[in-house]
Amino acid sequence: MSFGKNHRVMDSRRRWLALIVLCLGTLMIVLDTTIVNVALPSIRDDLGFSETSLAWVVNAYVLTYGGFLLLGGRLGDLLGARRVFLVGLCLFTFSSLACGIADSQTFLVTARAVQGVGGAVVSSVSLSLMLNLFTEQGERAKAMGLFGFVAAGGGSVGVLAGGLLTGAFDWHWIFLVNLPVGVLVLGLSLFLLPGGRGEGDFRHLDFAGAITVTGALLVAVYAIVNGNSAGWTSARTLGLLGVAAALLAAFLVIESRVRAPLVPLNFFKLRNLTTASSAGILWSAGMFAWFFLSALYLQIGLGYRPLLVGLAFLPSNAIMMAFSIGLSAKVVMRFGTRIPLALGLLLTSLGLVLFARAPVGGSFVRDVLPSMILLGIGAGLSLNPIMLAAMSEVPQDESGLASGVVNTAFMMGGALGLAVLASIAASRSSSLQAGGLGETAALVSGYHAAFVVGAMFTLAAAILGAVFVREIVASAPHLHLPHHDHQHAGEPELEGATD
């Protein structure tokens, strides 16, 4: 029996219970992207990471997660969404155990990379399972609202949980906490999620495309992370960047020739999809560096314990959650996508600039809270319009793949941006320490330099959005505002130039 036929016979109660299971799985994945940030200094001290190599605790996860999102979705189509979901869940849970017992840098980074693959597979088919469970437009809108709420709230839960677990126990428990959740979700999935065989020809799966694009980004980030120590103009760095460029070129050639490409190249002819993906790369480059470096600043520059670091992030995450639940959708309905997208990115840039002046031993209320508020408003205001703009020109039957393209752009932009900004911070700190400045002051000054460059990234994203995004119509048949349960009669549609 096909998946489509299976889900139709499920009663309403079972479908909503199945949604809760999918949300728990999504929460576990989202939580793991932020929970590690608060524990980074403890991991660095325990396993002897350097400032630049510490970025790989985040990058190893982010790169494989982003690299395998599209492949995971395609596997779900071919092999069956539930089957692939269960495999990804097992992989994520067991690799979480490996992270929790890691006693060396190599072991931890390798386990994080495997964890990213599992997370990508779970995330890529979760949305597909949810969309197939809820086919009626009103129910689907409510389900997407709950799904989006969990995805946004996971950031707050992750930061706070990271502080609690690291402070009460040690950093190992930020990974071990996934075990009971993973086992629970696995058990419930076997009973609640509908089965069914996938459709498609497995022989046409684009493994070559996934391998080349992931390899290109891995090599590029490795070259950037090690650029300070090896030398930016050294044969090693330039050679690695050349290998990354060759792999990317091979990916483009593969995509132009295979029968079922991982990313159809004609997607990039869609103006809004290309613009939104480019803005997403720049946005996530600044935001990932903010999460990573501000957590270090709070502990090193202000002397906060892990729990206080977690609490410090609550204002920004609470604001982002409020926007994700409904505020962002209402703003888009009133002003369209272009204005909130550009304004949100501009506020994000301003928040990063304010963080660049936070001194050693500063005040939370004066030096941290204003930045956290601006970053929360900016991210909450811009994220939904970016996604809506990206999907506005895509046919409904290709919306899943387009969503994967945008999510991949976000994850890859975050990984590359973090590599660049961590290297800038380390270079600045090393230079100042060589000049006689104290270690703490030098480290904080390095973070300042990275925040300024991150602000430039998000400012460039704001300009892209303001100039190149075409306005969309909210009532287009293939668009569903993810946090807007229904559209009232008489509610204004989005208007604006279509350029």
From TrEMBL:
The record's annotation in InterPro entries points to:
EmrB-like, MFS, MFS_dom, MFS_trans_sf
Gene Ontology MF: a single term: transmembrane transporter activity
* Pfam families hit by this protein: MFS_1
Q: Which residues cross the membrane?
A: 16-40, 52-72, 84-107, 113-134, 146-165, 171-193, 205-225, 237-254, 275-300, 306-327, 339-356, 368-389, 401-426, 446-469
Q: What is this protein called?
A: Unannotated protein
This protein's GO cellular component annotations are: plasma membrane
Provide the topology term for how it sits in the membrane.
Multi-pass membrane protein
- Has UniProt tagged this entry with the keyword Cell membrane? yes
- UniProt entry keywords in alphabetical sequence: Cell membrane, Membrane, Transmembrane, Transmembrane helix, Transport
Cellular compartment(s): Cell membrane
What region holds the Major facilitator superfamily (MFS) profile domain? 18-473
